[in-house]
């Protein structure tokens, strides 16, 4: 309701500018970047989804680590053999990836849904600087949030596991790479969301497509004959990307390096499609 | 200066703007009139490079909008549908636009004061009334101190005080030598604000003329005559330049003769007159007459609602 908002007063002198404007009012990539930075931090949804990502990552890591430590004394030998301390503390990425993905989609579709995109595109009519600026702002913010929450989840998780002396440390083989890789994976999932936002333009459609890519596609590929699926399944976006979060690759999956590059290709293709569509379509 | 040359815009098989050519000159307020769905908003989006014309070209000061290096300094725009993220405050909305082109923060504060939104500048735009949203749109349009202003239905949702404010503002902006292009579907409002008019209907140009010419067009007078011998008077008056319409059995409407000529003719033929009244069509009536063939949505069309 708007009833509690005071009616605006009419300004006096209608059009005069008393603030001198600088001679250089050129739109530059740096200026658009600053604009996008301010845009990001002036929306409540940014804070909520970022907090959700961090809490999901840390909270689930704590939960899984605590439960594992608790059950360790009564665990069967077969289960103990499958136990892997880094992965347990990083399990939260399964939830966090969805939240940060939503943040990525919303970064773009929030503008299409409200009409803000028309203001953005008339302020920067070359359009592509807006696409790159959003990608850069998102990468910086998501990378920091992803890495911080990944490392915090790891350390808290290992502290909980240490009660049973089953913890690991960053100096153990592949552990640092896995913890760092999980933060990186979260950043990249979000970036994929940003690209999908540009392509699809609606929040519901963008989120549905992202979740479909991450969750539904791998399940569908299980239905394929083995002779096919072995050539397809490892290269699906989520499977390729999640190689970053595994201390050693699951059977038939890519290892972290190739997995990372395959995921990069998806994101690059997404942004190329986004750039072409943004240039071509009416805003 | 805004120039549209043979601009056509099609969405699928629907032609929104059809071979439109016009020029909007600086120094005066130019009204852009047409019924709902005539293509006004589409034309304005094409001026701003948001929609690309199917054919033809629109330029602002000789260049396509997107070719200007400082677009907000070149053109300030208020678009019909709110172009604002409802979750952001008015201040941050304007600041984010200002930053793209290096406009200082103090200018943001200044335009907020200009449009009278200081008290609510830190509130989320989602809670704004229609009128406050329009004021924010005007603030965004003024932000870059632009040479050209393009405003789509700026008085929409404003209270009488706000309407008066917009009117004064637009005239002041034009008097400073700026190009001011304002759309409306209200002829009466444009008659008070604009000096020049571009009228479109169904995407086509209907008229490009000064408000004074339009008013003269509108003042084509008719005379109402009440007489018990209506049939005889009709036969007497009707001619090549004179048309007579019977409104009631004893009431005629005569177009093409003034009341003096009718009175004298009736006197000479010994027809008693009970009433002789010159009637002037209102601007709104003249506008409706001008655009009647071009109205997109009619009330009597059951498949479409009045937009």
In short:
The complex is a heterodimer of chains A (283) and B (307). By secondary structure, chain A is mainly alpha-helical.
Describe the model.
The complex is a heterodimer of chains A (283) and B (307). With 283 residues, chain A is mainly alpha-helical. Chain A has one domain. Helix content of chain A is 70%, strand content 0%. Chain A has helices at residues 29-41, 44-71, 77-82, 85-89, 93-114, 116-123, 128-161, 175-200, 203-221, 226-232, 237-242, 256-280. In chain A, helix 5 packs antiparallel against helix 9. Chain A starts with 28 loop residues before the first helix and ends with a helix. The model of chain A is unreliable at 1-13 (pLDDT under 50). With 307 residues, chain B is of the alpha/beta class. Chain B folds into 2 domains: 2-217, P-loop containing nucleotide triphosphate hydrolases (Rossmann fold); 221-280, Alpha-Beta Plaits, CATH 3.30.70. Chain B has helices at residues 40-47, 71-74, 90-99, 105-114, 130-142, 160-175, 187-193, 211-218, 230-237, 259-268, 283-291; strands at residues 2-11, 14-24, 29-33, 55-60, 75-78, 148-152, 179-184, 196-201, 204-210, 222-226, 243-248, 251-255, 275-279. In chain B, the strands form 3 sheets. Chain B has a 6-stranded mixed beta sheet with strand order 5-6-7-3-8-9, sandwiched between helices. A 4-stranded antiparallel beta sheet of chain B has the order 11-12-10-13, with helices on one face. A 3-stranded antiparallel beta sheet of chain B has the order 2-1-4, with helices on one face. In chain B, helix 3 (90-99) crosses helix 4 (105-114), helix 4 (105-114) packs across helix 5 and helix 8 (211-218) crosses helix 11. The radius of gyration of chain B is 24 Å and the shape is elongated. Chain B starts with a strand and ends in a 16-residue tail after the last helix. The relative contact order of chain B is 0.15. The model of chain B is unreliable at 301-307 (pLDDT under 50). The chains are: A mainly alpha (283), B alpha/beta (307).
